[in-house]
Amino acid sequence: MLVSRGDAERAPTASVLTIGNFDGIHLGHQALLRLLTTKAQSLGLPAVVLTFEPHPREYFAPAQAPARLASLREKLLLLDAAGVDATRIVRFNARLAAFTAEQFIEDVLVNSLRVRHLIIGDDFRFGAGRKGDFAMLQAAGEKYGFGVEAMPTHADAGERVSSSAVRAALAAGQLDRAASLLGRPYSIAGRVVHGDKIGRTLGFPTANIQLKHRRPPLAGIYTVNVEGLGDAPVHGVASVGVRPTITAHGRPTLEVHLFDWHADCYGAHLRVHFLAKQRDEEKYDSLDALTAQIARDADIARAWFADRAPETLR
Q: Which of 17, 35, 58, 231 suits 247 as a labelling partner, its CA being 20 to 30 A distant?
C-alpha cells in the first residue's frame, strides 16, 4: 500500500475514495472498505483512503478526546490488509480546520486526490463548522463529475457498530463484545523495550510493550495471546495501567508475562491480543502481596487456556 502525506500533492491517477479516521477498523469500517475495493476494481482505479492525523477531536479538545483504539502504524497495517491501494494522511491543523466545505471539495478531493467515486459513512460531516454533508457532496459530484455513495449504518446484535461502541465495551471489560464489533479480539502492538526489571526480581519477568504517548482504551489484568515470537502465539497474562504499587508517575504501561518463554525478546515487535479480563488494577501494601496476586493471575490465565481447545485460540 502506498502511503503519502499532505493535502496539496496531486495524485498520479483518478481514485475511488473514502474519508474517515478509521480508528480500530471495526466491522463497519470493514464493510465500507469492501465497498471501496469492489468499486475500485470495477472502475480499474486505485482504492484510496483519506485519513487525518491527529484525529480532529484531538486537535479541538485534546483533554476530552477519546483514547485511540489503534496507533497510526496499526491503522495502516489494517488498511493494507483490507486491500486498500493507497492512504493519504492529511495533517489536521488550524489551516485545515479553517477550510470551508467547498474549499475542501475543490482543493483536496478534486484537485489533489482526483476523486472519480466517493464512498462515505452516512454520518460524515466536513469543513469549517461541519457544514459539509452528503447533499453538498452530491451537488459537487454533479459539478465536478464524480459519483457519491453513502454507506448505511452497520449494526451488530442491534447496536450500531462504531469506534465509540468498541471503546465502551473495552472500558466495561466486555472483551467478547469488543471482539464481536471488531471481528477479531482487540489487540495492541508495539516494540519490546527495557523496563525497570521489577517483574524479574519478583519472579515474573515481563515484556514491556512501548506505548509511547498512547493512552490505551482499557486497563486492568488480562489473559492474552502474543504474536511475534514464532510461528505460534505465546500465552500469557498482561497488565495495562499505571502500576500504583510500583510507581507514582501515572504513565500507562503494557507489561506481559509470557508463559514458558525464557528467551530475550528486546526489540521484537509484538501484538498482544486481549482475550479475557480478570480484574481491575489495584495497589498493594507490599511487593510480597503483589507477587502473590501475580501468581494468582497467572494461574487464572493458564486455567483459561486449559479449558479451551488449541484450535480456538489461533
A: 58
